[in-house]
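Justification of computing resources. Each target in the renewal requires a structure prediction run like the one illustrated here; the chain below, 365 residues long, is used simply to show the kind of job we budget for.
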Amino acid sequence: MFGTSAPAGAVSTSASSAVLMDAGSGRVLFEEDMHTPRPIASITKLMTALVAVEETSDLSQVITVEPEWLEGVEGSSLYLKAGDQLTLETLLYGLLLQSGNDAAQVIACWIGEDLEGFAQLMNEKARELGMSNTHFTNPSGLNQEEHYSSAYDMALLACACLENPTVASICATQNISLEGRTFVNHNKLLWLEEDCVGMKTGYTEASGRTLVSAATRGAQTLVCVTLNDPDDWDDHQALLHYGFDTYPVTQLCGEGTAVGQAAVAGSVQPTVSLVAQGDCWFPLAEGEQLDMQLDVYSPLTAPIPAGTQVGTARWILDGEVVAEMPVETGTGVEDDRWKPNALVRWWMGLWGKSWETTVPGMGLI
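Resulting C-alpha cells:
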C-alpha cells in the first residue's frame, strides 16, 4: 500500500488518537498521534471476523456451543447457552452488529480450538497487514494489558476488511434477522451518514469510546479511526466530509490507456506504446501535482507480442512514490528488419514522414 501523509488541515477531533485514510491508496489525509498503542475495545472484532472468514469460507456450517467456550464471558452478549446451535453466519452478524462477546469466544474456540490458539492467528494476520503497533490476546477486545493497537494499524485492518466481500457486507448491514434472532447494528453512522458503509464500534472503561468507520463516494473510499473519543459520531462525520471535499481522487490511469512509449531494438518500428494494466486513483488536494516515472525492466528487442508486461509506471509526490501500475505493450512489434519495404519504412519513421509513396518493385509504402 502506497501513500504519503497529507499536510495538516483545518480539522480536529476530541480523540486521543485518530486517523483518516484513503483506502485505495493508503494515503493518510489526517492524523493525531496515530501510531501510539492504546486499548481498542470491541473494534478488535474486525480482526476476529476477518480471521474467521479467511479460515472458514463456508458460513453455513452449524456450530454447537460448548460450555467451556462461554467461560469468562462478560459485557455485550447474544446470551448464548451451552448446546445452542447456530451457523457461523449468524455468529458473525451477532459479532459485528450486536458486538456479542460470547459470539467472539465461540468463533475463536471453534476455529482456534482455544482463545490462545485464535489469538495467535490474529497476531499472524496483524503482522501480514503490517500492523506493527498491535498485539491481540483475545477475540472480543476486553481489557488485557497485552491487548492493544493504534489508530493507524486499525485503519490498515479496516482496509483489509473492506477488501473481503463477506466482512464488508456484514459491517454495512443495518439490521438483520437470522435463525430467530434479530441484530441491529450499533454503528449509528449507517443512519447518520448516507455514504457510510460500516464498520465497528467499541467501548470499555479503559479504552473509552473507539470507532472505525468507512464511507464511499464515487470511486473513493475513506476509512476513519478514533480511539478514546467522547464525540466520535460528530468527529467521524466531520473527518469524512473533510476528506471527500479536500482530497477527491484523481484517476492517474485506466486499464488499457497509454502512459508512454519505449524504444525497441531489432525492428524498423523505433518505439512501442505502453499501456496501463489496470485503473489507478490517488487523492489530491487543490494545487498538488504528481510526477510520473516510467521504468522499463530491460531494453526491448523485437519480436514482442502485444500485452507483454515490460515495466512499471510510478507516480511521485514530493519525492515519494505514492502509486504504481504495471505497464504492457499496447501493440505487438515484429522483427521485420529484413522484410520487403523495411528500409523505406525505417527511413520514413526516422524522418517522421506521413505521406504515401511508391518505390519501384516494392509497391505502396
